[in-house]
């Protein structure tokens, strides 16, 4: 198990302070603000701990209200809004320095049979046919600006294998779409709730960037102030976050300093297991 996965599991292992009250820590890796995926994952852990074991998360809707301070613990307060016959609803508030920085509503569902259909997996190369992160660094990132190089040098708990790397090495305006294989860098415990929390963490990676493709920019661009504003996710089927999942992303709209992005996550056998949507700040700034 890599040290990055150890860190991920440790930040998802919240400390219980009191009934429905939890404390989460952030990794001390030099970031000026807390990664949004971390807060989503921790909030989902907090909500999951207040729900019966046979009910699993099927959707979550989040708002990021203030930047998180990585030097300070985040307190997660869970409100048990409803326990119905099939669904349980929770609200989670993330608090730092006495102020709310994050809000999430999550719903949990008791598994049942029903009508079924899905959009098919696109026909694209498998992850073993694409360069590894080390090969990507040698071929592309070594020639990139220092801030991009620093990002790719950092050990992360999520491995990414993009189908196309052009976005990272050119200012060319591209279609606002991307396909990326994702998985954790080593095995996770078998608890399905941990895999959902890990995927919630990973779902915030690269998604906002999609809205910048059409403008020849990225979240690394020094002329852009970028941040997640809200994030929603739906879980459709069983999966393991430590096995390859294809993250299909597109951005149908951007305007007014905001970009809207969508994502679909497929297992290798073609099963659609999760969907995500996010609106983010993509404000142009003067330098």
TrEMBL record:
Mind listing the UniProt keywords for this protein, alphabetically?
Hydrolase, Lipid metabolism
Task: Specify the Acyl-CoA thioesterase 2 C-terminal domain's residue ranges.
Answer: 150-281
* Lipid metabolism among keywords: yes
- Return the EC number: 3.1.2.20
Q: Residue ranges of the Acyl-CoA thioesterase-like N-terminal HotDog domain?
A: 30-109
Q: What chemistry does it catalyse, as a reaction equation? A: a fatty acyl-CoA + H2O = a fatty acid + CoA + H(+)
Q: Which domain of life is it from?
A: Bacteria
Q: In its UniProt record, which GO terms are filed under biological process? A: acyl-CoA metabolic process; fatty acid catabolic process
Alphabetized GO MF terms? fatty acyl-CoA hydrolase activity
Matching InterPro entries: Acyl-CoA_hotdog, Acyl_CoA_thio, HotDog_dom_sf, TesB_ACOT8-like_N, TesB_C
The enzyme's main class, written as a single word, is hydrolase
Self-association state and partner proteins as the record states: Homotetramer.
The family annotation for this protein states:
Belongs to the C/M/P thioester hydrolase family.
Name of protein: Acyl-CoA thioesterase 2
Species in which this protein is naturally found? Cohaesibacter marisflavi
């Amino acid at each position: 198990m890599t040290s990055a996965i150890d860190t991920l599991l440790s930040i998802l292992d919240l400390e219980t302070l009191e009934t429905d009250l939890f404390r989460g820590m952030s990794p001390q890796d030099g970031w000026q603000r807390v990664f949004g995926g971390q807060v989503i994952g921790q909030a989902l852990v907090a909500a999951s701990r207040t729900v019966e074991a046979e009910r699993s998360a099927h959707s979550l809707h989040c708002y990021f209200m203030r930047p998180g301070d990585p030097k300070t613990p985040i307190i997660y307060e869970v409100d048990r809004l409803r326990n119905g016959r099939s669904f349980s609803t929770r609200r989670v508030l993330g608090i730092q320095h006495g102020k709310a920085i994050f809000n999430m509503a999550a719903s949990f569902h008791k598994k049942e049979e029903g009508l079924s259909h899905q959009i098919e997996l696109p026909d694209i190369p498998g992850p073993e046919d694409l360069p590894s992160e080390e090969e990507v660094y040698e071929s592309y990132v070594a020639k990139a600006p220092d801030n991009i190089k620093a990002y790719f040098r950092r050990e992360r708990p999520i491995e990414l294998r993009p189908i196309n790397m052009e976005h990272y090495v050119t200012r060319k305006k591209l279609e606002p779409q991307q396909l990326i294989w994702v998985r954790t860098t080593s095995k996770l415990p078998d608890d399905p709730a941990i895999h959902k929390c890990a995927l919630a963490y990973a779902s915030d990676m690269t998604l906002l960037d999609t809205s910048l493709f059409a403008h020849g920019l990225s979240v690394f661009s020094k002329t852009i102030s970028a941040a997640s504003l809200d994030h929603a996710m739906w879980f459709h089927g069983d999966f393991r976050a430590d096995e390859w999942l294809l993250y299909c992303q597109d951005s149908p709209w951007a305007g007014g300093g905001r970009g809207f992005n969508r994502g679909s996550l497929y297992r290798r056998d073609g099963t659609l297991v999760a969907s995500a949507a996010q609106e983010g700040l993509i404000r142009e700034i003067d330098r």
